[in-house]
Model the fold of this input.
Amino acid sequence: MMKVLRSGWMLDDVQHDQIAGALQKLGESISARYLLLVDSAGQMVVEWGTSAACDPHSLGALAASDMLATTAMAQMMGEGDGFQSVLREGREHNVFLTQAGPAFVLVSLVGRDVPTGWARMLIQRTTAHLADILAAGQHVPLPELSFEQENLADFCETAVDDLWME
Amino acid sequence: MLINWRQRELNLKIVYYGPALSGKTTNLEQIHARTNPQRRGELVSLKTQGDRTLFFDFLQLELGKIGGLTPKIHLYTVPGQTYYEATRKLVLKDADGVVFVADSAPAQLAANVHSWQNLKAHLVSYGVQYESFPLVVQFNKQDLPNALPPATLRNVLRLNGSPVVSAVAVQNQGVSDTLKAILNQVLARVQKEMT
Done:
């Protein structure tokens, strides 16, 4: 992925479409209920399927933290590269957390009737592909992000006041 | 930070850091209770049976557009208890800004200093230059009868240019001002990096 900022990432339209296409293909291949790609801070990149009653932002935060914790555990136990995949088996669905390169995590909600090995293999192929997409250079000219620095304080004042209900 | 041009979203992560029982979770609870439900997510709390933060609290807010983008703010707290050091460091990863919630009780002075130094050490370990990192300090519990005055806390923590907000978070005093201050710092940094 193009790292244009010291503190973060930017995703262009082409990358977004490629990721969405890859998630759709995976979702159809393994009859996934829901797929969610987040960055290592838990911020949502692209989702596919239906998250039902679940808030994808909360899910992203939990998934990224789970993966971070698992990776830290692996490192403490001498597995320097960390675990690349975590499986949580449920009564109706399995949840796979899979790293897509060093800075992204794919959450896959898959029915228990889908063979675990089959799902795991296709998910890992997809995350390798996603990592390549995310590592690719700039595809299209990005718009300028411009907001007036001198108006930031006013914006923050108004934006937070608008959120407050009293 | 993640900017998604297709979705026109600017995603930012802000972490509330500080010693145990300083009021980090209370800040998020107040924000959750007093903001428009249509513009925020649910408050996710990973707590122990004793109602103490085990991993983190999480709350997502959506602001009005700026620069054609919708800022989505992800607020986290860290567990304050000493033995959750590893967890604190994990939650701090990839943060775009930090609110340090200091406890104004005189008995908590040493805990404030320890946590403050601990925060700086973690930021350095992530390659962050904390002198230029978006950081706001909240002096919470200013309603205590023997609360340390802001000037004292500022001296003890050796704060230089970091914005400071006095607060009584449990009464919702200073909570939104703290949020405004950190947003201002974070967005100013985004703007600076983009130009």
Notes: Residues 54 and 128 of chain A are 26 Å apart (CA to CA). Chain A touches chain B through 48 residues (CB under 8 Å). Chain A has four helices and six strands. The longest strand of chain A covers residues 32-39.
